[in-house]
Specification:
Blueprint (H helix, E strand, L loop, with lengths): L1 E7 L3 E11 L9 E10 L5 E11 L18 E3 L25 E3 L2 E2 L2 E2 L3 E6 L6 E9 L2 E5 L26 E11 L2 H5 L3 E8 L10 E2 L12
Antiparallel strand pairs: 1-2, 2-12, 3-4, 4-12, 5-9, 6-9, 7-8, 10-11, 10-13, 13-14
Length: 224
């Protein structure tokens, strides 16, 4: 079993585990996933909401390591003005958002040079390879709970590591356990009915199908 950790400020942690890798035949080029389980594990520290999915892929080009940050896997896209220059917070245009940790970065590294200013950016979705959306059911209708919006300005999208150590094409199947840690799960969702949608992406940027958890409450899926 291998693992990877990505810290999401201020109190979030993403963890992915891959197991049961094997070389089956006749698997799809576009990765396919199936929902396995959603469980909530309270702890003495941050609590863990874990989604488990099964996967299969023909080439085995799943996973990104910490060193995979060159395009198209770069974390940030720097916004540019009409002359091609970076856009600084002190000179932000009328359509620019107010400061928040998703749209602005402080002292970023641009072309191997540290820019000592606050720069307008766009998060590059291809930096991640597992994507999670949250939905809350109220009055019989689901609506998306967007972590990217105020007051959180964060995301539970993240990365799991490479399945194979080499770039050789090899069919794989297995299970991903993707745990999202927060001190806020009970206070945010309480007794709400929730659902999560998940998909993954391979290094060729092929997106898998989307799978959904059953509708649950935290109490129903709590594991001690």
């Amino acid at each position: 079993m291998t693992s990877v950790k990505n810290y999401i400020l201020p109190v979030f942690l993403c963890f992915a585990a891959i197991s049961c890798i094997s070389p089956p035949d006749n698997f799809p080029t576009v990765p396919e996933i199936a929902f396995r389980e959603l469980r909530f594990v309270p702890t003495n520290s941050a609590d863990s909401l874990i989604v488990s999915i099964d996967f299969k892929d023909a080439e085995g080009d799943l996973g990104l390591n910490a060193t995979d940050i060159d395009p198209p896997f770069n974390p940030l896209i720097f916004k540019r003005n009409a002359s091609g220059g970076l856009i600084f917070y002190r000179e932000r245009p009328a359509d620019a958002p107010l400061f928040n940790p998703l749209d602005w970065v402080i002292n970023p590294l641009v072309n191997n040079t540290t820019v000592r200013d606050t720069v307008w950016v766009e998060q590059n979705p291809n930096h991640n390879n597992i994507f999670v959306k949250f939905f809350i059911k109220r009055a019989g209708v689901y609506s998306e709970f967007r972590w990217e919006d105020p007051p959180f300005f964060t995301t539970f999208n993240g990365r799991f590591p490479r399945m194979l150590n080499s770039n050789a094409s090899q069919a794989v199947e297995g299970r991903i356990d993707y745990a999202m840690l927060s001190f806020g799960w009970p206070s945010i969702f309480r007794n709400d009915t929730i659902r999560v949608d998940v998909f993954i992406q391979d290094r060729a940027l092929n997106k898998s199908n989307v799978v959904s958890s059953p509708e649950v409450t935290l109490n129903q899926i709590t594991r001690r």
